[in-house]
Design goal:
- By secondary structure, the protein is mostly helical.
- The protein is built from eleven helices and three strands; from the N terminus they run E-H-H-H-E-H-H-H-E-H-H-H-H-H.
- Helix 4 packs antiparallel against helix 6, helix 4 packs antiparallel against helix 9 and helix 9 packs antiparallel against helix 10.
Length: 311
């Protein structure tokens, strides 16, 4: 994305209509506030409550951190643009935004695969769960998720750094993203586009295969349980993760596994908005409202804070 003649880009956002911008600002401000507060609550609870210091919640804590980092790399900048009317972003800031959003986004998929493996071990191999999912193994899986995300984004990002921008610096998006940048480049972008698509397809297919295989074995094992109550309890421990997986993969497949994504900018902007604002807001509530342990930990923390405040 290097060119000495262009040092700044202009983000066109979602709309020029002032009334719609006000509504978008309110929506994004509320969803961002809920997202950050919800994910930070999960992170804090998993630190302070001893009942939540298990592999399952260790992964959930790291997933919440990724969600917070991802949405914070995009939404505050766009809120600032709407509030001040300043749509200019420097070339370096644009690169940094692409790097962090892609790194957090890709790492999430590998982390979701690791979380599905954790559920597989918990349900299919319960007697060996503590041994298999030791603290060391959990830390290795987290590190591998980050490293895999880094390895996936480096090739397309390295190629993107060589793109030239001659005629336009107006990005038809509310944030710096691969396809909107490719669209305004005056370089031959064929190789860059297909590198992005191939990396996305490989990431989604590899991680989704791990998730599907894990849940195939999980469902097979659950149906062997003798009692209905055991089956319901097993399904309830996996249901939140399955919902989050469905939302995350469904929205990303719409963008990155579509060869015509470069032209479908309007659709991509709407889907990207959902990925960067609505999904991170929804996920903490999916995990907390469907999880009795998290709800109990939250109530206990509120009680402790109330007791401390009365002293």
């Amino acid at each position: 994305m290097g060119n000495s003649t262009i040092t700044t880009f202009i983000l066109l956002g979602l709309t020029d209509d002032p009334k719609l911008q006000v509504l978008i600002f309110i929506f994004l401000f509320l969803t961002y506030t809920l997202s950050v507060s919800g994910n930070l609550t999960i992170i804090i609870l998993t630190f302070v409550d001893p009942h939540l210091q298990t592999p399952m919640y260790f992964f959930l804590k790291n997933f919440s951190f990724l969600e917070t980092s991802f949405t914070s790399a995009v939404i505050p900048r766009y809120l600032h643009s709407i509030a001040t009317g300043d749509n200019v972003i420097t070339y370096n800031a644009c690169i940094v935004q692409v790097f962090f959003t892609d790194l957090c986004g890709v790492s999430e998929f590998f982390l979701l695969a690791a979380m599905s493996y954790d559920r597989y071990v918990a349900i299919c191999k319960p007697l060996h769960y503590v041994i298999i999912m030791s603290n060391k193994v959990c830390r290795i899986l987290i590190i591998c998720s980050w490293m895999a995300g880094l390895c996936v984004i480096i090739p397309p990002l390295s190629l993107g750094l060589n793109l030239k921008f001659c005629d336009s610096n107006m990005i038809d998006h509310f944030a710096c993203d691969a396809f909107p940048l490719v669209k305004i480049s005056c370089s031959d972008t064929w190789f860059v586009e297909w590198t992005v698509i191939i990396c996305a397809v490989l990431t989604l297919n590899m991680t989704l295969t791990c998730v599907v295989l894990s849940y195939a074995y999980i469902i097979k094992t659950i149906f062997r349980f003798p009692s209905v109550q055991q089956r319901k309890k097993a399904f309830s421990t996996c249901s939140s993760h399955m919902i989050v997986v469905s939302i995350t993969y469904g929205t990303c497949i719409c963008i990155y596994m579509n060869p015509t994504a470069k032209e479908e900018i309007t659709i991509n902007k709407v889907v990207s908005l959902l990925i960067s604002s609505f999904s991170p807001t929804l996920n903490p509530f999916i995990y907390t409202l469907r999880n009795d342990q998290v709800k109990k930990a939250f109530r206990d923390s509120i009680k402790r804070i109330a007791l401390l405040s009365t002293k």
